[in-house]
Amino acid sequence: MTYVELQVTSHFSFLRGVSSAEELFSAAALLGYPALGITDRNTVGGLVHALRAADTTGVRLVAGCRLDLMDNTALLVWPEHRDGWSRLTRLLTLGKSRAQPGKGEKGQCFLHWEDVEAHAEGLVAALVPGEADAADARALGLLSDLFGERAHCTLTHRRRPGDAARLHALDEMARRHGVRSLAAGDILYDSPDKRLLQDVVTAIRHKCTIDELGFRRERFADRHLKPPEEMARRFAAFPDAIRASANLAERCTFSLRELSYQYPDEIVMSGRSPQEALERLTREALAAKFPDGVPNAYSELLEHELRLVGRLRYASVAKAMLGSCRAGLH
């Protein structure tokens, strides 16, 4: 089963991600990825650009987000469907409403586990763990309680001493809590040549020069997209974590294409849908304009426009004008 990279940060994560959605999806297409998950920090603002890039490259977008909670827990969440997306956006709105504009880091979002619990339905989640310590055990327990079989624990190489032991400990800890491990690359840029630029934005975030950055720079140099086969090789000891990435991508079928503007409901004609009311009023208005008979060109154009409005579901947008149309008939 093909690995899918689901933890990708774009430059919409201010001073953390480096690459644009266009660069990330172009690289993913060249590497043979069927889908790519964008999980910017506390925002879904970059997903419109990601959707356009997905359309251009043919790599499907798996919409997601990283949530940094107030207890320093980091969660990745992906909506399964439109209802899940609605809950995610409401959750982000709640967190951002608590932040104070102009103070602290850009894009602040103040959220607690209780907030996640209230919006968990329709979301698939994964813990971004630390060192397989007591804090991770507590977080996995909470995650399992809230998300059940939709809970995951990301396994990511950090290229630090004891990395292999840490991954095995996290995998075992996740199993004890009934949480499935999920392989992830924690991607910050599309290609290796962006590493120096990553150092630049990290130095800006810490308000220091690159020479002063020291151990605050990213600890390993391969936070770029790698071929699915390479990721499968790196996680050969955790084959189910590779399968989990593909399973999650298949499960989260939500697309931003499902969204459309919805005009507030107004009752225009009792017992009629907005489309039926629009059709009746416009045909009556056209007949009133041509009392001696409506020319074929006009009637054909009207019917064409009505079919288009019905197909695009725009009738409700026109409801605000229906009252005026009706008044003009009497």
Can you characterise this structure?
- It is a single chain.
- With 330 residues, this protein is α/β, with parallel strands linked by helices.
- It folds into two domains: 5-258, TIM Barrel (Alpha-Beta Barrel), CATH 3.20.20; 274-329, no CATH class.
- The protein has 13 helices and eight strands.
- The strands form two sheets. The protein has a five-stranded mixed beta sheet. It has a three-stranded parallel beta sheet with strand order 1-2-3, with helices on one face.
- Strand 4 and strand 5 (74-79) form a beta hairpin.
- Helix 1 (21-31) packs parallel to helix 2 (47-57) and helix 11 (274-289) packs parallel to helix 13.
- The protein starts with a strand and ends with a helix.
- Residues 324-330 have low confidence and may be disordered.
